[in-house]
Design goal:
Mean pLDDT: 85
Strand order of the largest sheet: 4-3-2-1-9
Low-confidence stretches: 118-124
Largest sheet: 5 strands, antiparallel
Order of helices and strands: EEEEHEHEHEEEEEHHHHHHHHEHHHH
Number of domains: 3
Structural class: alpha+beta
Helix content: 55-70%
Shape: elongated
Number of strands: 12
Radius of gyration: 28 Å
Amino acid sequence: MPRYSFDEFVLSPRRRLLLRGGSEQPLIPRYFDLLVFLVERRHEAVHRRDIFDRVWNDVIVSDSALSQAVRTIRRTLGDDPRDPRFIRTVARHGYRFVCTDVREEDDDGAWPPAPEGEPAGAAAVDVDVLVTRNVDGDRSPAVAADPFDPLLERITRVATDPAEEEDQREAAELLHGLGTAEALRRLDSRPGHAFARALLRDTRWDAAEAGSVPLIGQPAPLATARALIRLRLRRASREVAARWAGASMGGGLAGAIAGALGGLILAIAPGSAASLAVVPVLALIGAGCGATGGAGVGAGLSAAEAVVRSRRTAALVLGAAAGGGLAGTAAEWLGQWSLAALVGVRLDIGGSLEGVVIGAAAGLGYGVATSGTQGGLAGPRGSRRLRVAALTAASCGLAALLLSSAGRPLVGGTIHVIASGSDGSHAALTPLGRLLGEPDFGPLSSAIIGIGEGVLFGLGLSLGLTRRP
């Protein structure tokens, strides 16, 4: 594996080091991988799609994540986007590494020594010249005697456009380079401190030299948490919406398959009065229930995954349980109201508790299966995606078994309760129970039907949730 030398820099993919004059320049792993990729493909303009497939191949991130990564690399290299020496933006395409004097050499050789008084690993931030905005909105350099104050002023003001939002993120990253603890101390309770603290906490994942940014024990922790949630949801809104839609479609498809299979078995079971017409009816009911559940659980999962990064699995469980509970409550109310209004039947059907339990199980299985995900929404491929689907399905199946054992049936059991309470209905699942040796739709039948529904829902949800755009 070679290392690359250009200008005053040495880039070693093998040792995962970027040196400038012998001093290490820290970059987070994905940003380092991006720089290596651009240097390796320096003879061509690299498309944004290829960058995402190489650097963010296991997660789904927004376009702004790539823009931020390039901005950080440029700052580390001392590059100017208006007159680039290293990385040039190729409009409507991607980026290209444009330094022509790149030397490849064997990385087994001697390592360039660090200058005296500047040991390797020392992170340096250029604080003599800071980028500011003049009255016309143009970016211009300004000499600062105290580097903290102008940066703190930038992150505490209200941004009016996306360019100013990115400018604030750059200022927050510079503050991490100067010293996270000192930046927080100087920030204190000045106007706009809650948003600024949230911005510092969010950007600490993108600055290799960043320190911790706690919320508890700091000024206005609730306001800071709200600002952080809004900030992360706004930046990932398109990805969250796409995953929510995918989860809803996956749950709906799984419900349709479960309903159709159940209807077909019911129609051909010995002693059943149901006709084949029950197959599309149960498929439609299953699709509606699955889509509703998938939408609720998927929304909770996606929002939690976008917002929380440090306690991810716990957040996924809580988010999915909340989303599933809301969807289940809505289905329960709608079902009871429809039965009472249309056919005059009043039954105690479930929904809210089942939604919470199945949602929590889906969040747990998905969270455990994607526990190593960092820097975006999980987007596994191939066998890893199948592993996520299998673990999520198994977790939902186990939760469904527990619910059935406690006398809390899912969709199939609820249909049996409704059919049994309606005169002349042919949708009762008694024939299925007799196939299993029970005199009626009993505990064994309820458990098997519930496990099947849970497993199919977990499969559809996870496959829809992890579908890459």
